Amino acid sequence: MREFLEYGGFKSIVEISPGIIVLFYEWLHIRPLKYRSGALSGIMISHYVYALKVFFSWQESSDGLQYNPMSGLKFRRHASGRREALSVEVVEALFTAAISMREKVMLHLFYSCGLRRSEAEMLNVRDVQVRHRLLYVRSGKGASRRVIPLTGKVAGELGVYLEEYRKSGAVEKGAFMLNREGRRMSGSSYNRLLKGLVGRAGLWQGISLHYLRHSIATHLLQGGMSLEYVRDFLGHRHLEATQIYAKVGAHQLAVI
To answer: Could you confirm whether 236 is annotated as catalytic?
Structure first.
């Protein structure tokens, strides 16, 4: 909303018309990113539209505006490009095919903990509290922080990695996950590790790190977890983002 108000340079919100909202919407499609090249994604543009709808609905209901300038506008729906989640059997096949502790830990980080690639890259030893069965994400998307509970099995295997596998040859003392040279694992290193595992398991080569995150979200929802819990588990700000990542049953949507 702040970006929209700065874009229009309004002295008062009563000056806002449907036309300026349409111009802002069109501008979002060519607006450059602040920290890297490229433009906004479709889902991010949808978040802008959602924010506008909520703001003007609130203004109308609280008598801040007599007329809601969003009321007659319709915008293109963002095609989510929803990918199918991996089946539980495929995930089990990946764990079965994992022959190194590094491969097992990778699967736990991206599937069992649902981390993003950048979050796994930034994970430090101090963030994994095996004794308390907690994993701290201190630098999530949008500078968000969250705490992920670990099952006994996941905490146990992460602990084994820390105590028996990680210590030897560690160059970067703080990093949790290390490559063969003892340095912090990069996103490309994680990708290569997964591709090798997928090939050994004889599975579809299109499986990516994000498929693992997407799949745990779907499996948690199918297991009866609430949409709000899965949102917090994944570190999403909006329920809409969680709905895109995971197929939600009608019985779960009905209780939101």
So the answer is: yes
pTM: 0.66
| Beta-strand relationship, 128-129 and 146-149 | unpaired
| Rounded percentage of the chain residues whose pLDDT exceeds 70 | 88
Longest dimension (CA), the chain: 68
Q: Is 69 exposed, middle or buried (0-12, 13-18, 19+ CB in 10 A)?
A: buried
Task: Given the residues 102, 104, 116, 166, select the one marked as catalytic.
Answer: 116
- Is the distance from CB of 255 to CB of 226 less than 8 angstroms? yes
Active site residue 166: no
Q: Which of 132, 167, 210, 237 is catalytic?
A: 210
Query: Rg of the chain over CA atoms, in angstroms?
Result: 22
Q: Write the pLDDT tens digit of every residue in 105-162.
A: 999 999 999 999 999 999 999 999 999 999 999 876 655 789 999 999 999 999 999 9
Eight-class DSSP state of 124: B
245 is catalytic: yes
Given the residues 83, 133, 141, 146, the one annotated as active site: 141
Interstrand relation of 128-129 and 134-137 (parallel, antiparallel or unpaired): antiparallel
With beta carbons less than 8 A apart as the criterion, state whether 217 and 111 touch.
no
Asked if 107 and 94 touch (Cβ cutoff 8 Å), the reply is yes
Active site residue 210: yes
